[in-house]
Specification:
The structure is a single chain. With about 270 residues, the chain is an alpha+beta fold. The chain has 2 domains: about 10-105, Phosphorylase Kinase, domain 1 (2-Layer Sandwich); about 110-260, Orthogonal Bundle (Phosphatidylinositol 3-kinase Catalytic Subunit, Chain A, Domain 5). About 35% of the residues lie in helices and about 15% in strands. The protein has 10 helices and 8 strands. It has helices spanning about 50-65, 110-115, 120-130, 135-145, 190-195, 200-210, 225-230, 230-235, 240-250, 255-260; strands at about 10-15, 20, 30-35, 40-45, 75-80, 95-105, 155, 160-165. The radius of gyration is 18 Å and the shape is globular. The two termini are about 35 Å apart.
Length: about 270
């Protein structure tokens, strides 16, 4: 069993020249370059987030990547004064702001693919339903109480690659408090609304097993250590971080049942 958590999130600095864009995104979002701590420059999608949403993105990405789910490389990036118009997560020393950046996959989201062509909707949803790791996605969203997995939060790359993005509404929502955490509760898993109805009964039963087993993919990695090494504990207050880890640990035993409910198997 693995006893040390991997580090997935990089640190970086946003460079001049990032440009805003909006394709239905709620938060202020930019496309630009980030100079990473390893000296490489990455083209990235940059989001200006409140501290709670920033922590959500980081923790969800760390869990997903530790579980071998396809998530674009995440970066916690500093924006120095005058570089970019951001406002939400100011550093205490006044030297700038923190933002969440992720590698730009140059891939459209699912909504973009069928925007304006409703005839494509069944075909694309059928493709997602047949994706080899759709069970991992159901289990992941169930475990982290992601309330916002709509078609705009999935990317298609090439003919078959799928990427999971935008996890700011995880852990029951973007403005959670520890009192919101109920490990056995079925929060709104939006996959149940638009993807589950696409699946045959046999496919839903096939997916249920991998979905319920998803937390085991961490292979012994401790969530507290994963959050510490990937900077979540630095963004959240100590009590909030401890409450988040306790919620996720306690929720593991409920993931099989809650995933099956989201798949319409226990109704």
């Amino acid at each position: 069993m693995q006893d040390e958590a991997p580090v997935f999130l990089g640190l970086g600095t946003v460079l001049h020249g990032a440009n805003p864009f909006n394709i239905g995104n709620v938060n202020d979002t930019f496309r630009g370059q980030v100079l990473c701590a390893d000296g490489r420059t990455r083209q990235a999608i940059i989001k200006d987030l409140e501290p709670r949403q920033l922590a959500n993105e980081i923790m969800a990405a760390a869990i997903g990547l530790a579980s071998n789910l396809p998530i674009p490389q995440p970066i916690i990036a500093k924006v120095e004064p005058g570089v970019l118009a951001v406002s939400h997560c100011e550093l205490a020393d006044g030297s700038g702001h923190l933002v969440f950046a992720s590698a730009d996959m140059n891939a459209p989201n699912v909504q973009q693919i069928y925007f304006g062509d409703p005839g494509k909707v069944p075909l694309i949803r059928e493709k997602l339903a047949g994706w080899s790791d759709v069970g991992g996605m159901y289990g992941f969203d169930t475990w982290i109480a992601n309330t916002d997995r709509h078609e705009g939060n999935l990317l298609f790359s090439g003919r078959s690659d799928v990427w999971l993005i935008d996890h700011g509404h995880s852990f029951t929502g973007p403005a959670w408090e520890p009192t919101h955490f109920k490990p056995d509760a079925q929060y709104d898993n939006r996959l149940s609304h638009w993807l589950t109805p696409t699946m045959t009964d046999n496919r839903r039963r096939e997916v249920a097993g991998p979905a319920g087993d998803m937390p085991a993919r961490l292979n012994g990695v401790k969530l507290a250590r994963l959050g510490e090494l990937n900077y979540v504990a630095h963004v959240l207050a100590q009590g909030d971080f401890e409450a988040l880890v306790a919620f996720l640990d306690a929720r593991v035993q409920h993931v099989p049942r809650l995933s099956s409910e989201a798949l319409g198997l226990l109704v």
